[in-house]
Specification:
Radius of gyration: 27 Å
Number of domains: 2
Subcellular location: Cell membrane
Keywords: Cell membrane, Membrane, Transmembrane, Transmembrane helix, Transport
Shape: globular
Largest sheet: 2 strands, antiparallel
Number of helices: 12
InterPro entries: ABC_transporter_permease, MetI-like, MetI-like_sf
CATH class of the largest domain: Mainly Alpha
Protein name: sn-glycerol-3-phosphate transport system permease protein UgpA
Mean pLDDT: 85
Number of strands: 2
Structural class: mainly alpha
Distance between the termini: 67 Å
Membrane topology: Multi-pass membrane protein
Strand order of the largest sheet: 1-2
Length: 304
C-alpha cells in the first residue's frame, strides 16, 4: 500500500510539474508565429541589407569582395544621392503640413452639427481606399496638358509632368490628397474622445470657437496630432508609388526621392551594394527624426 501511494504521489507531482511548465511556456508558444514572421520578413532583410551595404555586388545582387564603408563614402560623393536626400526632405515638408491641416479642418467641420455629415465623412475618407498607384493614374489624367481637368479649370497650359518645378508640385499634391484622408479619419476619432463637458464649460465661461479650439480642443487632440505627424513623416520618407508611375524620378531628378533612388540603383543600375547603403542611410534618417519627435513629445503633447 505504501509503495502504491508513493507511486501515486510521484505521478501527481510529475503531472503538477508538467502543468507548471506548460503554463510557463504557453504564452511564448502563442507569439512564436509572430516572431517567425518578424524574423523572416523584417529582421532578416534588415540585417541582410546591412551585410550587402559592406560589399561590392554583381548584377544578380550576390556579394563579391568586401568593400567596407566605401559604398557609404561613394554615396556622399554622388551628387544624385545628395539631390535625392534634399528632394525627400522637401517632399516630406511640403506634403506633411498641408495634409495635417486639411485633415484637421475637415474633421473639425464634420464634428459640428452639419447636414449630410455622414455623406461628407464618407467622401473625405474615400481616398483611403485608393492605392497610390491607382491615385497616380487618376491624377495623371487630371494633370494631362491637353485633356486634363486641372488645366481646363485654371485656363492655362501647364506642363505638370514635364517641368521640374511643376512635376514636384504634382506628386506633392497626390501625396497630400492620399494622406489628408488618413489624417481626417484619425483626427475625427480623436475629436470624439474629447470630453464634451470641457467644451461646454468653456462655452459657459464665454469662450468663442477660436478660444475653445486653442485652449481646449487642440491640447486634448495633441496625442492624435502627434501620432498623425509621425505617420505622415514616415509615409513621406517611404513614398514611391506616384513617383514611379507619374515622373520616374524626373524631370531632371526633381522628384527623385530616396526610395525611388534605391529602386533605380538596385534594379536598373544593378548597384545592390550602393542601394543597400542608401537604405541604411534612409533608416538612420527616419530613426533620428522619430527620436527627436519623441523628445519633443514631452513638452507639447498632453495625455491627461
Amino acid at each position: 500500500m505504501e509503495k502504491a501511494s508513493k507511486e501515486v504521489c510521484m505521478v501527481q507531482n510529475k503531472t503538477a510539474v508538467n502543468k507548471k511548465i506548460i503554463n510557463i511556456l504557453e504564452p511564448y508558444l502563442y507569439i512564436v508565429p509572430c516572431i517567425v514572421v518578424f524574423l523572416g520578413f523584417t529582421y532578416f532583410p534588415f540585417f541582410k541589407t546591412i551585410y550587402l551595404s559592406l560589399f561590392s555586388t554583381n548584377a544578380q545582387g550576390e556579394p563579391g569582395s568586401f568593400a567596407g564603408f566605401s559604398n557609404y563614402v561613394d554615396l556622399f560623393k554622388d551628387p544624385s544621392f545628395i539631390n535625392s536626400v534634399v528632394v525627400t526632405f522637401k517632399y516630406v515638408i511640403v506634403t506633411t503640413i498641408p495634409a495635417i491641416l486639411i485633415g484637421l479642418m475637415l474633421a473639425l467641420l464634420c464634428d459640428n452639427k452639419l447636414k449630410f455629415k455622414g455623406l461628407f465623412s464618407t467622401m473625405y475618407a474615400m481616398p483611403m481606399a485608393v492605392s497610390s498607384a491607382s491615385a497616380a493614374i487618376i491624377w495623371m489624367l487630371l494633370f494631362n496638358p491637353s485633356i486634363g481637368f486641372v488645366n481646363f479649370l485654371l485656363g492655362k497650359s501647364i506642363g505638370w509632368l514635364t517641368s521640374p518645378f511643376w512635376g514636384f508640385i504634382a506628386v506633392s499634391i497626390v501625396g497630400v490628397w492620399l494622406n489628408a484622408c488618413i489624417n481626417f479619419i484619425f483626427i475625427t476619432s480623436g475629436l470624439q474622445n474629447i470630453p464634451k463637458e470641457l467644451v461646454e464649460s468653456a462655452s459657459i465661461d464665454g469662450a468663442n470657437y477660436l478660444q475653445k479650439l486653442r485652449n481646449v480642443i487642440l491640447p486634448c487632440l495633441s496625442p492624435t496630432l502627434f501620432f498623425v505627424l509621425i505617420i505622415n513623416i514616415i509615409n513621406g520618407f517611404q513614398t514611391f508609388g506616384q513617383i514611379n508611375i507619374m515622373t520616374l524620378g524626373g524631370p531632371a531628378e526633381a522628384t527623385n526621392v530616396l526610395v525611388y533612388s534605391i529602386y533605380r540603383n538596385a534594379f536598373f543600375n544593378s548597384r545592390f551594394g550602393a542601394a543597400s547603403a542608401e537604405s541604411i542611410v534612409l533608416f538612420l534618417l527616419m530613426f533620428v527624426i522619430t527620436l527627436l519627435q519623441f523628445r519633443y513629445e514631452d513638452k507639447k503633447v498632453f495625455y491627461k
